């Protein structure tokens, strides 16, 4: 019996009032339905990486700090990634770029997709982010999600009024991501 391939659903925002964790958990549950893959959440707020503080470039893998070695081990334990993040000023959160920049080889050849969100869906952030994933030599899947979340979808505390109702239109895309992730992992063997 072979072990299930593990996919990390990365919560790519650390803002205190963020909705990213709920969106990522919803995506994980949707992806897990009828999947042969195992999906786990990784919260960058819990990982707690400081601003990049390694003295040499990541490609050399000469990590000086324990937090970098722990991050490297965690990333290496996953077979693929779904990055979930908001669009900020037409870009993606700096904490996510920081987490990517800590490592290099660990990302190579891993399949990846993304779920962005914002008032216009996050397409500009997605475009930038995909360029970075290519720079890390990840296998970017064809399908990704750009979820539109309007001011009417959130309450006075900036939390989603109806998480499932707001995100439900994206379920078919998440099913396609699971299919593409499965295919990419089968092709990589």
TrEMBL record:
Which Pfam families does the entry link to? FMN_red
Q: Which residues form the NADPH-dependent FMN reductase-like domain?
A: 6-143
- Respond yes or no to whether keyword Oxidoreductase is given for this record: yes
Please report the name of this protein according to its UniProt entry: NADPH-dependent FMN reductase
Enzyme class comes to oxidoreductase
- InterPro entries per record: Flavoprotein-like_sf, FMN_Rdtase-like_dom, NAD(P)H-dep_reductase
Is Nucleotide-binding a UniProt keyword of this protein? no
Which parts form a coiled-coil structure per UniProt?
none
Q: GO molecular function: any one?
A: oxidoreductase activity
The alphabetized UniProt keywords are: Oxidoreductase
> Per the UniProt record, which EC number(s) apply here?
1.-.-.-
Origin organism of this chain? Amycolatopsis samaneae
